[in-house]
Amino acid sequence: MVAIGELLDALTLEGAGPGRFRGANLPAAHGVVFGGQLLGQSIVAAHHGHDDMTVKTVHTVFARAARPDLPLEITVESIQAGRTFASSVVTIAQEGRTCTSSTVLLHASDDDLIRHADAPPRPSRPDDAVAGGETGDWEIRVVGGVDISDPEAVGPPDLDVWARFVGAPDDPLVNQALLAYATDGFLIGTAMRPHAGVGQAQAHRTLSTGVISHTLTFHEPVSAADWLLLAHHSAYAGRGRAYGRADVFTEDGRLVASFVQDALIRPMPGGASGQL
Fold first, then answer.
1. Which residues form the domain of 242?
2. What are phi and psi for residue 190, nearest 5 degrees?
3. pTM exceeding 0.70
């Protein structure tokens, strides 16, 4: 269960010196901090001192899991700061060990010279989708009622999910961070869909799974309080890895963000596994 107040508290970083912050953790299953939290906190940290800009792209490498019982040590190293673009490297560590390293590009957008955008690949509406379990203020509805946890629920490597954060404030930075939080949860399950005997219910039990790298690009301003469609597709799985990508659309079909992810999917040492 995710409460919007807890999410906003985790995104409110405590200053710890020039370019340094401390971050709190949300409650986490399996003793591992959810990667979406770290993505959102990296966005907030990188934006510090760039109030006239928004985040364009964040590319994050997950070096090791973060523990929910330890505080986060966040450092920001500026690479470049100009009138139109700025970039920073954000490192999140615990006890001196790096958990994530993110390269974050910020920008002040320009007027259109040209414009085009993809439409949703599979039209749907949130009212027609199925609630995806008890998630509190992070509301999730899965198109077609697909259950990516069920190892026997076989289908194509596609997954469409409607999501919103009830009570999200009207703050552009917070909305980007909340969307980043939502992008981390579904591509591993999407990669498992075509394979009988493999599902997310086995993650951290008989299967070792985790995000290796994640790149999120914002195209337009987003409102995390409104329904957003995350249209996932896994283009490849093999060699113990999976690759997936997704586009994010508003309810009226506007493309507002895109992301790609590399992930780990392999047998848990000493545990049984399904076919990969």
1. 4-109+127-267
2. -60, -40
3. yes
